[in-house]
Specification:
The chain is α+β, with helices and mostly antiparallel strands. It contains ten helices and 14 strands.
Amino acid sequence: MDWLDKAVIRQLDCISEMLKQPLQPIAERCAPEWGKQVQLDSVLRNFLDNSSNHRCRLLYVINADGKQLSSNMTGADQDERNIGQDLSARPYVGLAQDMSSDFVLSKVYLDKRLHKPCITALHRVKKDEAILGYVAADFNLSDLPLKDVEKTELDHWRQIKGDPSIRGTLFQQTRTVSAMDHELDTVLPVIESLVCEQGIFHAKLHFSSSRATLWTYNDPYRYKIHVLDEIVNPRVCLVYAKQDYPADALIPVEQIEPILNTFKSLREADETIYLRAASLNIMNGLVGLNFSCDGSHYMSSDDFLEKDLSFWFGSNPVTCVAG
């Protein structure tokens, strides 16, 4: 299970805790009115009129076979046109039929009409132990008070293959020495100073197009673009305020210089397969690489520094890891 799956599960657990309790009494009140559309609508309307904590987009009742028994109830409207429609093909209906508990959340899906991420919560309606059907509540994710789930560090190296048309013509190209290539011995120390001493937490070097994109710790929502003439001159350091290296950075300050030097080595090691762009983010601990074959890699700084050039290029460039 990767970090995204873990984060989604944590968020769904939070949503379940929030929605299960209010849906349970609705299901209990629907049981004695089962099969009576007017009475079921009244139960649903009463809930919506007296609830201010849960912004339900749509509330309705379906039987165990997926047939809708009530109107579609919203905060202000009641729509009877969908009574009797067959919802058995909806994924969440099958999920509810297979569930072992009385409450279940659907997967997140895009609403066909609104084109927004939505989720459906279902609670069983039972009489004694017999399952009569379900109360279903649709929510826009934007209407739910989603929480910040615990941040999870990247725990594995990720390789992402790029444009097949670039990969297919890889051996028909050679590296063109860029203006930045001629100035790396100046550019890299400038970037090192900016990262270590002047609040740059994310730096991306575009070697082929001779520019750098920088994000500052104190203004993370606005990135700065510097062309070569700007970053080849140490005077650019006058633009950024002096700042201590962040105590919560995941890349140790002593790793910055060797990371940048390794970028240079990967750029110059091979004339066919070479580094086009590279980045480091000291706050999430990641190094990003984009090669001439359009292959991209993301890994922790420790993993990156453990690998020498033979790991990336080997003895056979056709099967090199960089691609």
